[in-house]
Structures are given as C-alpha cells and as structure tokens.
Specification:
The protein folds into 4 domains: about 160 residues, Immunoglobulin-like, CATH 2.60.40.10; about 300 residues, Transglutaminase-like (Coagulation Factor XIII, Chain A, domain 2); about 110 residues, Immunoglobulins (Immunoglobulin-like); about 90 residues, Immunoglobulins (Immunoglobulin-like), CATH 2.60.40. The protein is about 15% helix and about 40% strand. The strands form 10 sheets. Strands 1, 2, 3, 4, 5, 6, 7, 8, 9, 10 and 11 form an 11-stranded mixed sheet that branches. A hairpin with an 8-residue loop joins strand 34 and strand 35. Helix 4 packs across helix 6. The protein is elongated, with a radius of gyration of 31 Å. InterPro entries: Ig-like_fold, Ig_E-set, Papain-like_cys_pep_sf, Transglutaminase, Transglutaminase-like, Transglutaminase-like_sf, Transglutaminase_animal, Transglutaminase_AS. This is Coagulation factor XIII A chain. Tetramer of two A chains (F13A1) and two B (F13B) chains. One of its GO terms (molecular function) is protein-glutamine gamma-glutamyltransferase activity.
Length: about 725
Amino acid sequence: TSETMSTNEDKKKPPLNGRRAFPSDSSNDEENEVPEMEAFGLIPRGFNPRDYLHVVDIYMFKDPHEINKQQHHTDKYYSPKLIVRRGQPFQIQIEFNRPYNPEVDQFWLEYLIGRYPQQNKGTYIPVLVGSVLKPGEWGAKIIHKENNSIRLSIMSSATCIIGKFRLYVAVLTPFGILRTQRNAATDTYILFNPWCQQDAVYLDDDKEREEYVLNDVGIVFHGNINDIKLRSWSYGQFEENILDACLFLMNKAELELSGRGNPIKICRVASAVINSKDDNGVIAGCWDNMYAYGIAPSAWTGSVDILLEYYSSKQPVRYGQCWVFAGVFNTFLRCLGIPARLVTNYSSAHDNNANLQLDFFLDDEGKLDTKLTKDSVWNYHCWNEAWMTRPDLPVGFGGWQVVDGTPQETSDGMYRCGPASVQAIKHGHVCFQFDAPFVYAEVNGDIVYSRREKNGTQVIENIDRTHIGQLIVTKAVGSDGMMEITEEYKFQEGSEEERLALETAVMYGVKKQTIQDTMYQPQTDVDMDFQVQKAILGSDFKVTITFRNKSRNYYTATTYLAGNIVFYTGVAKNEFKKHSFSAKLEPSSSSAFDVVIKSSEYLSDLLDQASFHFFVTARINETGKILAKQKATVLEIPTLRIKTKGEMVAGKEMSVTVEFTNPLKQTLENVTLRLEGPGVLRTMKKEFRQIPANSTLIWEVKCIPNRPGLRKLIASLNCDALRHVYGELNVQIQKP
C-alpha cells in the first residue's frame, strides 16, 4: 500500500519552481498529514505503544470565564476554541495514562500551521519543557502535578505568526516518536498582543487598548467641514466566525504564512484585499448612485454581514464607499489584535497627478469647465490608522500608520495604500514607504483656479491654500465624542514648520508646480465669501453672498452662483441652480446678497448623501480680476427612533421598536430597514412596500441579548428617494 499512497500524494502536490524546496505556503486552512508513530527504524515485534507514556486527554482552559481568555483579553470572542495573544504565557493540562516521571519520560509539544510546516519558517514549532520561561520566546514549564496530570505554562514568541495552529503532543520512545491524533478541539488561535512590550503592536495606555482593540462599535464622522455628521458603525470583531473570516482574507491575499507575524505586511496586503479591484476582494465600490443587484453603501450598519457574506460566497459584496471600506478594515485589524481607528479627513484632495495642486478650470464667464477639471475634492474621506513599530524605517516613524482600503489609485500595480507613517507625512519625509506622497497630497493640496484666455494662455485667477485637509478627526477614546487629530498630520497653516515640511516633501519628490508672482496678482482689496443656511431635506433654504470692499473705490461685481448636486467625492452629477447678478460695492463697506434655493429645484435629482456643492465666482468689472469660492453643504436628514420595552437581561427575551416619520412630500417606496447590535441581536432586515408622506412606520422585533454590559443598537433606513437615515440607542444589558 505504501507505493500506491505515494502516487496519490504526488498528484496533490502543486508543481515546484526551481527556487524553492517547498511550494509557497499561504493558506491557514490547509493541513499536512502528521504520523502518529514516527519510527526510527525497524520496530521489534513485541513493541506495544501502550507500554509507554501516552496522552489520555488535553484540557485547554478555553472557556470565556477561564484563566486563558481572561488574562489574554480574548473572552469576548464568540468561539469555543482557545484564543491567546502572542508573547504572553497561557496554560493547558495534559492527562497521561500514568503519572509522568521526568527521569524516564520525555515529551514535547508541537504547534503546526499550514500545509508545509517548517521550523525555519515558524510554521513548525517544537516546544520543549524546561525549568524557566524566557519572556517573548517559545517554551513550556510544568507548574502543577497531580496524579496522572500535569499543568503546563506555555510562552509563545512575541513575533509568532498570527493564525490558527494545530497542537500535537509527542512522546519519545526507544523505537520512535508517538504523537496524539489530530484533534480540532485543541486548535489554538494566536493573535497580536498590544499588552506585550515585545510585540510590534504594543500600546502602553490601557484606555487606548480598551478603545482601539476591544471596542466593537465605533463612530464614522461624515457630512462636510461646515456641517459635521456622525453615525455609529458596528465593527463586531468578536462575533461568531468573524475571526475565521479575517484569517481567510489573508489566505485570499496569498500572504505567505511566514509573513503573518509582521503587522506591516498584513496591513499592506489587507488594504488591497478589502476592495474588489484587481483581486476579487471583499467589497465592490460604487459611486454612481446606481446600486442595482446590490445593497446601497448607506444601508450597511456594520462589518459583520459583509465579512460573513464574503467568507461564504468568496465573491465581492456589493456595494461600498469609503466609510464601508474603512469600517470593514477596522474590524479586520482589531480582530487580529492590531490597534486601529477610523479617521475622517474633511475636504480631502483626490489629486490625479499628485502635484499637490488641484486644478479647477474656469471658462471665459468664470464658470467651472467640468470637461477640463479632472481633480476633485471629497467632502470627506475615511481611512484607517493602525498602531505599530516600523523597524523598516529610521527611528521615530513608528506609531500610527495610515492604511486605506478604498480604491483610489494604484500602488506598486495594485489598488492599495499604506502603511504610511503619520509622523513622516507631518514632517514631509514622504520618501519612506508606503504611499506617503499620496496621503500627503490628500491633506496638503492647494486649489488653483485658472482660466484659459481666448488666445489659449492660462491665467491663474485664484489660489486657495487652506481648503484641503482642514480638519482630520476620529472618535474620542472612551466616549462618543470627536477628537481632532489635524495636528498629527500637519503643522499650523502658515507656520515656518509647515513651509519646511512642504520643502522637504518637494525635495523627496512630491511634485509641486511653482507659480510665478508675475502671473498671479489677485484682487486683494475685496473679500468675497458665502454662507449656506442649514436646511432640512425637503425644505427651501438660502445662500448668502457677502462682499467686503476694503478700498476707496466703487466696484461692480458680476457674480455667478452655480449649485451642483454632488457625490460626497465632490464629483458633480448635475447643475440644478444657475443664478447671476450684478453687485454694487460701495467703498469701505460690506454688502450681502441672498439667493433662494427651492426644494422643487433639487429634490428630483438628489443623491444619497443629500450633498450640494456651491461655486461662487465674481468678476470685478473695473479690474477684470476674479474672486472664487467653493463650499459643500449637506441637508439635515431625518433620523430613526429606537426604543426598548421591559427589562433587558442577558438570556431573556426583550423587545426593540424602530420608528420613522416620512418628511418628504412624496410616498417612499421599497423601503428597507436594518437593525443590529453586537452582543444583543444579529442583523435583522424588514422590507416595507410604501410609506406615504408624513406617515409613521413602526417595526417591533424580539431578541435575546447574550452579553451583559453597555451595548449599542444601530438601525438604518434605505430607499431610492432617501438614504443615510440612521438611528442608534445605548442599552444597558443586566447580568442574569
């Protein structure tokens, strides 16, 4: 039989290339056959393995309330298996057929991962029993003996591969090695350890670890710089099967197992596999408001549904936009134990040719030429920061690293971005890998308005140096507040340090066109600005344009206002308002002009984030100079109300009600509601055919919460006429 077996084996093996002794090993799901008896030669006829020490049972202390998961902060994972963090001791107990006698018995443990375990790759780990444990190195020592059992304390390496290992106990006999059978119940997950000083992701503040590793809900800031909106997002990194789904992403990205102890590599490949461009990754992006055959990005309330759907179907989940990519990426990072946070950059530059300059082209009348203008300013853009050391860079560039799963531009031929050191971006040291120049441009561009004369020459009319990257925020630690982190990315506008950082970035190859002073002489004695009145979806509002004439001259200004309905990426869908007028500007005085926007002008074309972009240009007729200003604004969208009835106790049924009143003057059709809350209920969905104007919908669900403590319920409502409708509620679940 041995011969027939080997031919079968050969068929299964992938072809080798000339450089490797072993095929590449990049799946945590595949296994090899491990012999239960590994003979040293001929086995004498009288040999009976039962005469030697052998293992009767292994006890893993793997329940949430037991020592391992408590000490390793893994008690929230919804998994029956042992989950520990690297570089920190954990315990198991082995029961033998007789008392263990160190004089004559010799045994060791073996941890294996992947199809081709090798010691030098860290995929085959023999652990010998010794008398002391060295911090951050593999080892085991006996801490308790009783009858036939021994209890071991096992230390894993602080640089160990992250993933699911198989455990065997091996016993030495004179004729060979006896091993335990393959037993899935003893599989051990090993994760990153922000609590361990030798780990590359070590974070020294307990409140920050609580937030950036253990918090399973978070907040996404959206809207725009003048009207910041927020919504909750359920990360759900501890929910059932999410850990396996996250490990599957690394298999999908074909990251070699031997590289999976390195957070830099993991972040880099994950930023590519989170989006579906070029690798059939997790989420398909869609920014054109056409969400047929999929779910609108605004409908998702968290990452769990997306990851589980991808894990089972292996096909990209439709659809996402930047906060969805960032939300799922955050779940992936926190689940594996890498401290992570979701960050929003307001007025984010998407600079197509990375020259730190966003070019907006105007025609003769001062209107925006949409055919020529390729760059765009996103109202906001979300990415992630992951916390780690950067041994591949000079000292001082560790800490928060930007990683971005939204497909914007390619990096080394794939849609991915990061990790880029935030510290390096701030100081302009954009030479350090990965993708620092792109992120630098997202937060530091200038907007240049230029006009093409009849004879073809380009005239620069206006430069706005402060519009881009005005505000960068993330959720505060330990509360639902907003924490501004702009100064982590850039120095004070106009400071000497800012100039220096820019010169450094240019020196390291960020392209910046120099603008001759002779070409650009703006009108300095007149200021023009405008304000958009806050308005609720479905109502009229006004735009007020103000001029301040600081000179002693009379001026007249031909003023043009254009209102576009835009995607939050700043890309216009269509112009819904055009209005021009002539403004008379008295010397040394200010004047204001109102333009009314009616709901009938915008409602039919509204996009999901109810975003407008206003462009105001004014030509001072006496000098021919142009003043230009642009602003985005978002309508107030009505919210969902969530209520609970009766007592809320873990393990007991409770009732949750979601209510919504339709504010529009039209009937809403084909409305989908979603409700989720990690630890309280799995995502529930409900479809409603119609909600007439001004009527109220009420949806009641029953659920049995499984985790006590402060939890969050999150709901969303979605239909073609109305998107980005959310509601949330904090609930305190009592212990039974």
